[in-house]
């Protein structure tokens, strides 16, 4: 089993699992919400959302983040084994109503922990330098900044997790 294969992870409060048909509306909200997309290039257009809606069903490496208590989908975590210069890259999004409750840290921490245990070469995450909340989350989880660069006309910071 790999951290990005068709598997599920369970934490104290969350179930991270492959995306199902019933999750597509929540995924579409992630891709179109102005706040979620503030540091991700802005909301996606209808055509892109439609294509992603079909792609996300069972997509390798994409986890729906759902509360264990009631199955409500809070967001997603994506693991890309060749994401950055051949290193495993983690990305994540949570709907704004779930921010500030520790869910992102719980979800990302679980996925990073699994990836570090199973994938050589460490794990990276990239966020805009201006995205202070995301940077704090990564640092709380033990990631350290290893590179700064400009991409998509914005200053970016690459973080690395080491086992």
From TrEMBL:
GO terms for molecular function: acyltransferase activity. Pfam families: Acetyltransf_3. It comes from the Bacteria. Residues 14-163 form the N-acetyltransferase domain. The keyword Membrane does not apply. Keywords: Acyltransferase, Transferase. PROSITE patterns: GNAT. Its EC number is 2.3.-.-. This is GNAT family N-acetyltransferase.
